[in-house]
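The pair is quoted verbatim below.
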Amino acid sequence: MNCPQCKGYQLEPKELEPGLVAGSCSKCQGALVSLMNYRFWADQQETTNAGAEETDVVEAEDNKKAQVCPKCSKLMTKFQIGADSSNRLDLCTGCDEAWLDSGEWKLLKQMDLADKLPKIFTDAWQRNIRLERQEKIHKNRYEKLLGEADFVKLDAFKQWLDQHPEQGQIKQYLITNLDSK
């Protein structure tokens, strides 16, 4: 199979981790991971904190172009890794193969996601990323509007209010203005 990025370069077997073999490109260092092989490998692993050991910042490339599956030639779909990462993984839904750009496996390990690869490709995972990003945008807007010190107080109050059993009554109190100026 040829590399989907570097036309003319063959994918060669390479171990990403002991027992996890992927097709790797010698030029771009990308890797094609069979999710069937990945699931078998993941089932054999003990639950560990894979990302906890890495302290260095991982440089991971992210090809913005649409990728073509080297197996079946269908377009691969891009999936966000997380709300704090701009990297996207490519998945061929027909072949169940994932393309990882150079450094993305290390990034997954650093983010403690190396044992959750198939979950990244689910609608629920992608929806949670969108919600997390929307919440950050919402909070940033109010922080800019109010200033950092006041926003910290407001956010702490909101967290308390969200958990309070009489939330509705407290909100009613806050919006009621009896002053008739």
